[in-house]
Amino acid sequence: MPSTDSKTVEETSSKTRKKHPPMYKVLLHNDDYTTMEFVVEILMTIFGKSLEKATQIMLNVHNKGKETCGIYPRQIAETKVETVHNLASSKGFPLKSTMEKE
Predict the structure, then answer these.
(1) Where are the beta strands (DSSP E) in 40-81?
(2) Burial (Cβ within 10 Å: 0-12, 13-18, ≥19) of residue 32
(3) Per-residue pLDDT for the chain (102 aa), expressed as one digit of tens each?
């Protein structure tokens, strides 16, 4: 005879697996001062993009005004945004990064 305890654990475990934390898009915004090379460097070092993918995203930022760099759980997205701002500021660039719920 199966116990009701194992069934409860199974149901709870199933519900837990289905609920994922909310995800956030990290965006870079175009400006007239930050160099394209620096944006590519940021995309490669902070977001782990290849040179080709970083260049493609940088061109989208330049042409469209903003572009998604990655999608992460909230705390990771916040850290990425803060890291972008700190690195840009240390190099004298006004590069803006934001996050929005996906």
Answers:
(1) 66-73
(2) exposed
(3) 555 555 555 555 555 567 888 999 999 999 999 999 999 999 999 999 999 999 999 999 999 999 999 999 999 999 999 999 999 999 999 999 999 999
Q: How far apart are the first and last CA of the chain?
A: 45
Q: How many residues does the chain have?
A: 102
CA distance 99 to 63: 19
State if pTM tops 0.85. Answer: no
Q: How far apart are CA 57 and CA 66, in angstroms?
A: 9
Topology of the domain comprising 34-102: Ribosomal Protein L30; Chain: A, (3.30.1390)
